[in-house]
Design brief:
6-stranded mixed sheet; 4-stranded antiparallel sheet; 39% helix; 237 residues; alpha/beta
Length: 237
Amino acid sequence: MLTIENLTTSFGSVIALDGISMSAQESKITTVIGANGAGKSTLLRTISGLESPTSGSITWEGQSIVGRKPEDIVRAGIAHVPEGHAVISELSVEENINMGSLFRRRTHKSDVAASLEEMYQLFPRLQERRKQLAGTLSGGERQMLAISRALVSRPRLLLLDEPSLGLAPLVVEQIIDCVNTLCRSTGLTVLLVEQNANTALGVADHGVLLALGKVVADRPAAELKADSTLRAAYLGY
């Protein structure tokens, strides 16, 4: 389980996360929603070691990960898919996915090929394009590739940042369905950051609403989705 207590992350005089506390339950999907500037992406970047918190604690499976290098956090079983469908354009689909297995090759070399094939089963479109340069893919395919590159390391916690950004609704549905299926079938823990609250709350078990770096609500996802007062006040619908 991931546990965050009194976490603050600042950029100079700007406080992006202001003493937040929350958790992500094992084998569940927890979504963090909120408007632009709420601190959602900063939260994931702080968990994955890309940003350093000013204060507070982040505990994963009983161990503190504050101050650890991003690569060590990956080795601890946490994979981060940043927003923006980030892939290496000059590499092929297969080379991009294999980049995600680098930390496993020394200790789980025999499992890498099997993990790669599992990614192709999860996203068959990537198998069709396995030798194609990543820069030639559509936005939806690049998002599938970014997720596959993270999953090939067999993480126990997936940090997924704005997977719907800039994508057609049908593609978003396919990607979210795949993540949901993976969570339910393998026990993967997912922390999903989304601006599209309706989509996120529809698939999540639990929801956390952020506003200006603070936790406004922390409830079962179905309760948050049904709360029209909160939606109107903080999400604009």
